[in-house]
């Protein structure tokens, strides 16, 4: 049994991670800002704290040690540096949720060496000071420079699921069902995705195994935006209204200029078996369509 702290563990793949850890009988603590209630059994401790308040965060975990910390909610170099200052010498390992957004959408299949956090120039700042991708790049760079514990940076593509609070796949399905236009930049662009349950499974794998450094974690295979929309059309029984340009309200969250995906070869070589994208995507679309119609 391990002592495990999860930052961002009350919804979506973070919640699925905690549920998996509960099944294994670990001693689990979750930390949130208090906007979400503890959805787990009384055996899961809930710390309410704003992780951007360094003094409050340090006080909340004072005197505590953890074998593994999962950080799903770090978005800036300042947050990463504060984490290191608080937890150096107190934890066995950090699994940090990073992103495909550390790579450019330039049409090439990305591998981990395409972004090197060990040599990246650090510019300190808070979340509003950076784009999402740059904030994650900076956070990775800070962790790998200042952490006195092993760090795994898990780079996810867009995570999908019925309970996805970002509702990005839902956006496309609902626009088709409601005959609303969607704006894209390049319908031929290909993307990679991962299912929320599989994202949780890889986070678990990264924590309990001897991994360190950046790892791409994605279902195998890609799908073009054209093929994705055609899949939605087939399930919904309706045609999509597509525009190459559109107002901001109807711009697809997948409106990318070129193919944007990555390869999970390094993680596969470490022993994790990813599902094929095509093995679950249509089933997920069907489930969301069914829910949207009820």
List keywords for this structure.
294 residues, alpha/beta, seven-stranded parallel β-sheet, globular
Structure class: alpha/beta
Shape: globular
Mean pLDDT: 95
Rg, rounded, reads 19 Å
Number of helices: 9
**Series of secondary-structure elements, N-terminal to C-terminal:** EHEEHEHEEHEEHEEEHEEHEEHH
Kindly state the percentage of residues in helix: 25-40%
**Strand share of the residues?**
15-25%
Kindly, what is the distance between the CA atoms of the first and last residues, rounded to a whole number of angstroms? 43 Å
Q: Please give the largest β-sheet.
A: 7 strands, parallel
* Strand order in the sheet with the most strands: 3-2-1-4-5-7-12
Q: Report the uncertain regions.
A: none
Using DSSP, what is the number of strands?
15
Can you put this structure into words, describing what you see?
Strands 3-2-1-4-5-7-12 form a seven-stranded parallel beta sheet, with helices on both faces. The termini are far apart. The longest helix has 15 residues, at 132-146. The chain is globular. It is 33% helix and 19% strand. It has 294 residues and is an alpha/beta fold.
